[in-house]
Design a protein that fits this description.
two-stranded parallel sheet, globular, 396 residues, single chain
Length: 396
């Protein structure tokens, strides 16, 4: 069976000697990515490499990088206040129909806090590394994300190698040969996770569990990830105990205590996974977005052609914090979330035929999940499951 994805030693090695070589990626303390090759491209007097992002970065206005502390803190505190309010409501109300509505709101608020933490992890929200770290750790607690684990997988792997075969693990496609080599159970799991209703399950297993909880992780990241994982598990345990005590004080039965923990802590987490899994899918998966072989991939192809700008319904950015304006975020992760539309406008004015700019519509998401099942890296095209059946018939 062909490998699910390769594990370059500079990214996934568990050896102590994991130092970046020339052209590999270095990670600063706040999680910002710096590529040695990109530093060379910025050096005065040196030619720009083919496929470089420098021509794109050069046209982004300086104002797009402004990130005053008060602004980032205002978004963080606003989202925290909303989170506390809805947690309180979920504690007070146990009616199934009321809870169902509150769970939707809670998923949106948890997503809002997660995006704030995501921005801080990139070092984009504040100028201070310490403030980014503190806010990032706190903002990711409601979504139970291991901060340093996220920095490793998201900042160091997904961003510098977007849609590159064998490197980017986020929604990395399987080939026809991969699928044919699967057993029955794995095929059924693939069919479920690559459907529109299975995106949350994919994210829960592939991103949250495998890349932040279980590992393995490079040796020099183990200490930090273990620390943050202990913080997340401690938070989850303390939260559950606190909710159980509240329910017990109210005279609830064992079922009532279990229902309290489920509706206030477990269901919001699962709802968040569904939402963020779907969001990440539409960021990078559609029939017109190509995954590239390692030798053919460039930064321009990955960050400009492998991302989207999706215009959400009015008011939704109150929670999404413009993360759906995703192309400029991949071009330069130093841009704070609230300035992404400004950067997108500049990029689209200069590269109008490159950026995938369209409305965010559920029917498009559903349509994409029907078409984008398997992948042919030779032709650069997405395939349906029928391609695996046809291939099997031809080789029978």
């Amino acid at each position: 069976m062909a490998s699910r994805y390769l594990r370059p030693s500079s990214l996934f090695s568990t050896a102590e000697d994991d130092r970046p070589a020339r052209g590999r990626v270095r990670v600063t303390t706040e999680g910002c990515l710096v590529a040695d090759l990109e530093l060379e491209e910025r050096s005065e007097g040196r030619p720009v490499q083919a496929g470089s992002l420098k021509p794109v970065i050069d046209i982004i206005p300086a104002a797009a990088y402004e990130n005053p502390t008060w602004k980032g803190m205002a978004y963080f505190l606003r989202d925290v206040a909303m989170y506390i309010a809805v947690v309180t409501a979920l504690i007070l109300f146990s009616n199934v129909f009321v809870v169902a509505g509150l769970e939707v709101v809670m998923a949106l608020i948890t997503t809002a806090l997660f995006v704030v933490g995501h921005d801080a992890a990139h070092g984009a929200l504040f100028k201070s590394k310490r403030t980014n770290s503190i806010v990032g750790h706190l903002a990711m607690l409601p979504s139970m994300h291991v901060y340093e684990g996220w920095v490793l997988g998201h900042n160091r792997v997904h961003h510098p190698y977007t849609v590159r075969q064998g490197y980017d693990f986020v929604w990395h496609p399987y080939t026809v040969e991969d699928y044919q080599a699967m057993g029955f159970v794995k095929r059924m799991r693939h069919r479920f996770e690559w459907s529109w209703f299975g995106a949350g399950a994919y994210y829960l297993r592939e991103v949250w569990l495998n890349k932040m909880i279980t590992g393995p992780f490079p040796a020099r990241w183990v200490k930090a990830i273990n620390r943050d994982r202990a913080v997340v598990l401690g938070w989850a345990g303390a939260f559950a105990v606190g909710l159980a005590l509240i329910a017990w004080a109210q005279g609830d039965s064992l079922f009532g205590i279990a229902w309290m923990i489920t509706r206030v802590e477990i269901l919001p987490f699962l709802a968040f996974c569904v939402m963020i899994g779907s969001v990440v899918h539409v960021h990078h998966v559609q029939p017109t977005i190509r995954w590239w072989k390692r030798a053919e991939w460039t930064k321009f192809r990955g960050q400009m052609e492998g991302t989207t700008v999706l215009r959400v319904p009015k008011g939704l950015d109150f929670f999404f914090h413009w993360i759906m304006v995703h192309t400029p975020h991949h071009v330069d992760l130093r841009i704070p979330m609230y300035n992404l539309p400004m950067a997108a406008k500049a990029i689209e004015e200069h590269f109008p035929d490159v950026v995938h700019d369209e409305k965010l519509r559920f029917r498009d998401f559903r349509s994409n999940t029907k078409v984008c099942k398997l992948y042919d890296f030779d032709s650069g095209t997405w395939l349906p499951y029928a391609a695996a059946r046809r291939s099997k018939e031809l080789t029978a």
